[in-house]
Amino acid sequence: SQTIHQWPATLVQPVGSPLSLECTVEGTSNPNLYWYRQAAGRGLQLLFYSVGIGQISSEVPQNLSASRPQDRQFILSSKKLLLSDSGFYLCAWVSGRSYGYTFGSGTRLTVV
Amino acid sequence: KNEVEQSPQNLTAQEGEFITINCSYSVGISALHWLQQHPGGGIVSLFMLSSGKKKHGRLIATINIQEKHSSLHITASHPRDSAVYICAVRTIQGAQKLVFGQGTRLTINP
């Protein structure tokens, strides 16, 4: 079956510390992968997407970066977190065949 | 102006009432999604529409491509329906990206 794993579920990090959020999918190959963020009181916004290994597109300038080292692994990183990086981060993928959208369970990041 | 607009932003109703949430969009789309977000933050996909109407249990979603408008209806609403409902459109540009509405916070009182 097709599943998506995202971790950790919650994270509290001090300003200036690094960040690594990981997302992996199972049951599919060559999916489109996405990182979305929901800041407090705001809607979801696309941060990065990837259509293949090593292919990353950024939607908004920011303090974050993304990498796709394997077909079914998508990583969101930061070298130095800012307070404004706080929010709810969602990984998602799209199957090329069914075009269904599947979301991970999300990571709630609080930068203090 | 946002590319995807939802109304209302907040909706409170009594159990059993018929609920309608509206979504209008201004971009070309390949599909429209209705999503449900519970207080913990997790998001569940309710519907994906490219035309017409879909029904799942007490939930009905419709889309009018010409008018660039979609509605989500809940019949016989129940307190467990309380959640944020989000409209998102899949743009026709490459990579199947989603553009989200701001969400509608629905509260159903017993």
Provide the descriptors you would attach to this structure in a database record.
heterodimer, A: 112 residues, mainly beta, four-stranded antiparallel β-sheet, 11 strands, 0% helix, B: 110 residues, six-stranded mixed β-sheet, five-stranded antiparallel β-sheet, 61% strand
Structure description:
The complex is a heterodimer of chains A (112) and B (110). Chain A has strands at 3-7, 10-13, 19-26, 32-38, 44-52, 55-58, 65-70, 73-78, 87-94, 101-103, 107-111. Chain A has no helices and eleven strands. In chain A, the strands form two sheets. In chain A, strands 2, 4, 5, 6, 9, 10 and 11 form a seven-stranded mixed sheet that branches. A four-stranded antiparallel sheet of chain A has the order 1-3-8-7, with no helix packed on it. Chain B has 110 residues and is mainly β. Chain B has strands at 4-7, 10-14, 19-25, 29-37, 43-49, 52-56, 59-64, 69-74, 83-91, 98-100, 104-109. Chains A and B meet through strand 4, strand 5, strand 9 and strand 10 of A and strand 4, strand 5, strand 9 and strand 10 of B.
